[in-house]
Amino acid sequence: MHEKERHRIILSAVQDRPVATVVELCNLTGASEATIRRDIATLHMQQKLRRVRGGAEAINPPPFVGLAGRTFAVNETMRTSEKQAIARAAVDLCEDGDSIIINGGTTTFQMVHPLATRRCQIFTNSFPIAEHLLKHSKNTIMLSGGTIYREQNIILSPFDNDVTRNFYAKRMFMGAQGLGPLGLMEADPLLIQAEQKLIGQADELVVLADSSKFERRSSLVLCPLNRITTVITDEGISDKAAAMLDAADVTLVVAQPGSGQEEVS
Amino acid sequence: MHEKERHRIILSAVQDRPVATVVELCNLTGASEATIRRDIATLHMQQKLRRVRGGAEAINPPPFVGLAGRTFAVNETMRTSEKQAIARAAVDLCEDGDSIIINGGTTTFQMVHPLATRRCQIFTNSFPIAEHLLKHSKNTIMLSGGTIYREQNIILSPFDNDVTRNFYAKRMFMGAQGLGPLGLMEADPLLIQAEQKLIGQADELVVLADSSKFERRSSLVLCPLNRITTVITDEGISDKAAAMLDAADVTLVVAQPGSGQEEVS
DNA sequence: CCGTTTATGATCATTGGTGATCGTTTATGA
DNA sequence: TCATAAACGATCACCAATGATCATAAACGG
C-alpha cells in the first residue's frame, strides 16, 4: 500500500470519530505501528490533523451531534479492532470498478475507510455509509429510497418497486446478528425484509461477523448458510464454528489484526 | 507508443486517482519502469504533476470534495439573506404533521433551519437536506433512491419505478433556474426529468425564487405557470413579473427580510 | 547507405521507506 | 506515592524504489 493511500485512510478515519488510535489505524491500513506514527507525524506537520497521545484527532473541533444516534455510537465502540480488521479484509476483495452492495451496520461501516482509496460503484441502504463515502471518497454512490430509520440509520422502503431492483452487483457485504447452523440470523423483521431484497440483487454474499456472532442466536433466519459465499471473521472463531461453515461450503477468511489475512477453506 | 501518448496516459491516470504508481503506469502504457520514471521526471519539470516516491500525484491538492460540491457551496453564499427570508416564508406554510416534498437546491436548502422545530413528513431528493434534517430535527425523513450526483448533491434515478411514486404530499417546494411567461425554467435535462416526476406526486406546487430569477431565462420549460400554486420571492420583484403571475392565477408571497411577509394576490 | 542522434530497456549500486526491537516516557490505578 | 502497562522515540536490518550507466534499436540527416 502506498503512503498516500494510508494518508487518505487515516484522514477518513479521523473525520469519522473524535480520535483514531494508532492500533485502529493499523487494522484499517495493515501497516505497522511505527509507520502509522510516522504518517501521523507527517500529517500533523501538514496541518491535516492533530497529533495526540494514542493516535490522532481531526484538526477542526468535531461537530457536537453525530449523525449516528446513540445506539449506533455505542455499538461502534465495541470490538472495534476486530471489526476494522474484518472490514479491511472485506475491502481487499474489491477492485476498482467493482459494483458492490453494502448493507448498513456497524461492522460494514468500517469498510468506508479502506474504501476511501477505491473507485467502485457502491449501492447501500445506510445513510452514514453513503454520507462518509460521499465526503471522503470518489466512489460512485447509489442509495436506496425510503424512510430513514434513525435507530439503525438505515433507509427502508415498504415497497418492492424501488431502485434496489435495478441495481445488480457482483458482491454484497453485510453484517449479522448471529451465525448458526440454521444460517444467518437477524433480530428485526423489518431488517430481514430489506436485507432479503438486497441479497437477491447480488451474486456473491460476503458476511462480516466477528467471532462472537457464532455464539449468539437470534429469533429469525435470514438465509441458509449455503447461500453465503464467504464469511470474514477474526481469530477468535472456534473450530466447531469453522467446521460448520466448511460443511456448508462457505469460504472462511480469518482477518489478522496486524497485516495479512488467512484463508482457511 | 509515442512519448506524448504515454504522457497523456500518465496525466489521465494521475488526475483520476490520488496517486498513480510506477507499476500501474507500466501496465497502462506497456513501457518499462525506467521509461515511466523518465516520463514522470519530465512531467515533473513541466509542473504537470508532482513526483513522489512510488509514482506521481496530481499537482493540485487532492480536492477532498466536501459534501457540498463547489458549485453548491458557491451558490449557497449568493443572495443568502433573500433566500433565507423566502425559505422561512415557505416553512411558514407548513404545520406539524404535514407531508411535504422538498426538491433539492440552494434556496430550498435554507428551509432546513426553520424546519428544525417542526415535525413533518419530508420527502426529498437532496442529500444535504436529508442529512441536515436528520441531524438537527425530529422530522420524519424519506429519501428518493438512486445515484448521488456530487455536483448538485441530488439523488437521481433513471428508473420510473422508485419510491417516489409511493409518496404523496400536500405540497411540494422547489427552486427554479428562471421564471418566465412560458413557465418554470430549468437548465439540466436530467433535473427536469426528476423534478417532473416529483411534481406529479404533490397537490400544491410552491416555487421559491428570489427576484433575480424573473430576469433569467433558461432553455428548458419544466411546467407552465398555471401549474404553480404559490410563488415566494423577495421585495425586488418587478410589477411586470407580479402581473404575469397574477394573470396565471398564481398566489404571490413576498417575503420580507425582517419578520413577516406580505401576500399580494 | 552510413553515421549520428534519440529513445528505450537492462543492470547494478544507492537511497529511502518499512517493520521490529528495545529503552524511555507517560498515563492510569492501587 | 508507587507499580504497571501502554505509548512513544530511536536505532537497525531489510527490501522495494530509484538513479546512473551502458547497450541496443529506431529515427533522422547527410
**CATH architecture identity of the largest domain in chain A:** 3-Layer(aba) Sandwich
Distance between the termini of chain A: 26 Å
How many E-type strands of chain A? 16
Structural class label of chain A: alpha/beta
* Uncertain residue segments of chain A: 64-74
The CATH homologous superfamily of the largest domain in chain A is called Translation initiation factor eif-2b, domain 2
Strand fraction band of chain A? 25-35%
The first-level CATH class of the largest domain in chain A is given as Alpha Beta
Biggest chain pair interface: A-B, 36 and 40 residues
Helical content of chain A, roughly? 25-40%
* SSE order of chain A, one letter for each helix or strand: HEHHEEHHEHEHEEEEEEHEEEHEE
Mean pLDDT of chain A comes to 87
CATH fold name of the largest domain in chain A, please? Rossmann fold
Write down the overall geometry of chain A. Answer: globular
Strand order of the largest sheet of chain A: 6-5-4-9-12-14-15-16
Assembly type of the shown chains? homodimer
- Determine Rg of chain A (CA atoms, Å): 18 Å
Q: How many DSSP H or I helices of chain A?
A: 9
Number of domain modules of chain A: 2
